[in-house]
Design brief:
Blueprint (H helix, E strand, L loop, with lengths): L2 E10 L3 E4 H4 L7 H8 L3 E4 L5 H16 L6 E7 L10 H9 L6 E5 L5 H12 L7 E8 L10 H4 L5 E10 L5 E6 L6 E3 L9 E3 L1 H23 L9 E4 L4 H10 L11 H4 L6 H12 L7 E8 L3 E8 L1
Parallel strand pairs: 4-5, 4-6, 11-12
Antiparallel strand pairs: 1-7, 2-3, 6-7, 8-13, 9-10, 12-13
Helix pairs in contact: 3-4, 7-8
């Protein structure tokens, strides 16, 4: 059995930070109202940046930190539900932007907020027959382009950004994963091409119920697979950064020690497929995530989809 060995991470954010106070000038909200319900103080919105530019910034950073060049990459996957174009894919444009070889396996995948973990699993599998031994997995979103900026229930939640990881297959490692989907067109929906403008529609209460259910269940399944009695036997838990209330609810239910569940949505909001790799990069760069640690990651979002992975860093 093999597992992905993440060699390095990276992240890239737009220049423009948007605070709750700034949003309150356009919609009926306040910093206190947003933060008390979500744990979010600010997020980043693209002004002139594209999704490909964000993806390339995060990818370059991760490749440089791993000591790799474009000639080393055999797989390039991008998790996104907000690509710049329906076609060409962000991954194909990233291949050109980074100068990857033309026989690199490149495509986008859409598992919404679970997209990075879906990408990690897919890239690991593809590396078995890839032309080169390293994979680039990116989560990149420009959610501000599909939001109704007059809807205070959704426009305060999301942000733009990208996170990336470079990995290789390691035959000496093992890992445990869980994946799931539950076709639901109503809880979270983004209108596709057509006469109706794209906008996020979300049933917040339904999403909360779904999230706390699948996150807790996924964590328990991964702990059992690893032979661990408690979540506190882990070094870190990194969930999709959708809402502090979701993470706090699950943390309390599992009797987790203070600080085990990482949170950074106060600075970024919900960046969908980018949220887990952005969080991992923050943890690595701050020194909190070090080689040998056991980190459990869980993503959940539109589809509905969910995914979990327990990794040895």
């Amino acid at each position: 059995m093999s597992a992905p060995h993440i060699l390095a991470t990276g992240r890239c954010l737009p220049e423009r930070a948007v605070t709750n106070e700034e949003l309150s000038r356009a919609v009926d909200t306040s910093d206190e109202w947003v933060f008390s319900r979500t744990g979010i103080h600010q997020r980043y919105f693209c002004a002139g940046e594209t999704g490909v530019q964000l993806a390339a910034g995060a990818a370059r950073q991760s490749m440089e930190r791993a000591g790799l060049t474009a000639a080393d990459i055999g797989v390039c996957l991008v998790g996104t539900f907000t690509p710049d174009h329906a076609s060409p894919s962000t991954a194909c444009l990233l291949q050109r932007e980074l100068g990857l070889e033309e026989d690199t396996l490149c495509f986008d995948l859409n598992a919404a907020c679970a997209g990075f973990l879906y990408g990690l699993k897919t890239a690991h599998a593809l590396l078995a027959g890839a032309p080169r031994p390293y994979a680039l997995v990116v989560g990149a979103e420009v959610i501000s382009r599909v939001m109704d900026h007059t809807d205070r229930n959704t426009c305060v939640l999301f942000g733009d950004g990208a996170g990336a990881a470079v990995l290789r297959r390691d035959e000496t490692r093992s890992w445990h994963t869980v994946f799931g989907s539950r076709g639901d067109p109503d809880s979270i929906r983004v209108q596709g091409p057509g006469p109706v403008p794209s906008a996020i529609h979300m049933d917040g209460k339904a999403v909360f119920r779904f999230a706390v259910e699948v996150v807790e269940r996924s964590i328990r399944q991964l702990l059992e697979a690893e032979g661990l009695a408690s979540v506190n036997d882990l070094d870190l838990v990194v969930c999709h950064q959708a809402n502090a209330r979701i993470i706090d609810h699950v943390s309390k239910k599992l009797k987790a020690q203070e600080g085990l569940f990482y949170k950074n949505m106060d600075r970024y909001g919900n960046t969908s497929a980018a949220s887990i790799p952005i969080a991992l990069d923050e943890l690595v760069q701050s020194g909190r995530l070090r080689p040998g640690m056991r980190v459990l990651t869980v993503g959940f979002g539109g589809g509905l989809t969910w995914a979990g992975a327990l990794l040895r860093w």
